[in-house]
Design brief:
- Helix 2 runs antiparallel to helix 3 and helix 4 packs antiparallel against helix 6.
- Helix content is 51%, strand content 4%.
- A two-stranded antiparallel ribbon has the order 1-2. It has a two-stranded antiparallel sheet with strand order 3-4.
- The chain is built from 15 helices and 4 strands.
- Among the domains are: 152 residues; 56 residues, no CATH class; 76 residues, no CATH class.
- By secondary structure, it is mainly alpha-helical.
Length: 453
Amino acid sequence: MLRPYPSGPAPRLCQICGLVNRQQALALQQSKQSSKRSFVTLHASRRLARADGSVPTAPRAARLFATSQPCLKAAKRPQPPPAPKNQNAPQSSSQDGEHGTPRPRPSSKPQSPAADLAELVAAVDRVTKAFLAQQGIPSEHTTLTALRACAKPDLRLILDAQKPSQIPASASRLLDLDRRSKSPATDSLGQTDPSPLRPEDVMKRISNAAYAIVSHPAVSITPQVLDEYVQLQARLGRPETFPYVLELYATKPNPRLVAGSIEYVKANPNKIQNAIEQAVAETALNTAIEAKHLDAAVGVVENAYATKAFLRSKIVKKALLPISVAGAVPVAAYILATNLALLQDSLEPALATNMAFVGILAYFGFTGTIGIVALTTANDQMKRVTWAPGTPLVHRWLYEEQRAALDKVACGFGFSQASRYGEEEGEEFMLLREFILRKSMILDAVELMPGMN
């Protein structure tokens, strides 16, 4: 891009020559003054004379000398004082940047995690109070809505608020003491300031609110309500109330509205309808194992897998069809034997029918017995808890889910290495071993351990 010529008169050639002579004289004078120093060569780059005829000044790069000795740093130029501001010009605000560009102002102050946790607790308290203040028997839909409202808070917010507080216990105590010493302990009315909410407190409040809703006397615990409650507590990681709620599911009196008042009918815990669904029981057991809560895990096993309602439900679901087929086999065998007797002439029809009937029954009887023995004595799925010798096959089949649950508990609370099975110590694990032994089971049978068979 071509620059425009200056508007003033052009400099004459004599003026330029005079300026060049002055520059050379100044350079000779500086060389005489530095005659005692070592030989110095000036830098080649020098600023030419300006067109206005003023004395040129050497740029900063021209004052750096190339010599055999280390060069000295160039002195910093004093910056000129700032130009006075025009009074008529609008003054910039204190939030403007260095170049006069206005800085973006924050729209709103971000809310602290403690305030968010307080809002969550307040919302859960409002839902709980509104539900418990109802008159009459709440419907299943109302109970599910209340539980889902308690489960609505985002747990990621609580966990994110918990991450910055992961510091050693000693350091946290020192920080608490420092905060207490700096902040007043009481307010003007003499009341103690409430401590800020912690994520553990928020989870506990939500868990207590859900338990208060389910344990309310007028609430009827249905399978959907129980499933929703277990899922909520599993998200919170608090399995302490699982044994009580599972027991309430089977033994809680059923509320009924009679003549404007609520009456409670005693429930039969051994009914098939009061059996815990296997998927719900597995979720509760896995939550207790992940939380390392041994009492809750054993309570889930006792109130879910070891109840009569669960055993009756298993018989109806898994054994009713095979038993019906086994009962129909003799009838089908006699009809088949009668038809086979008519196809021969060497024996009497009655004798041939009896012989064919006995043969068919013997075939199905021996084959079915071998299948039942193979099914009930299989132990490939067993890791640590096995059946004691002499346990009846029917008992093994009925309580197989309970054995599998106790096996999962033993693996969850014991050593993870198979080579260290049986080396656990402590009062809790000894009680677990004795509890398993009372169920006709053995924990870590020596003859079934690797390398011992």
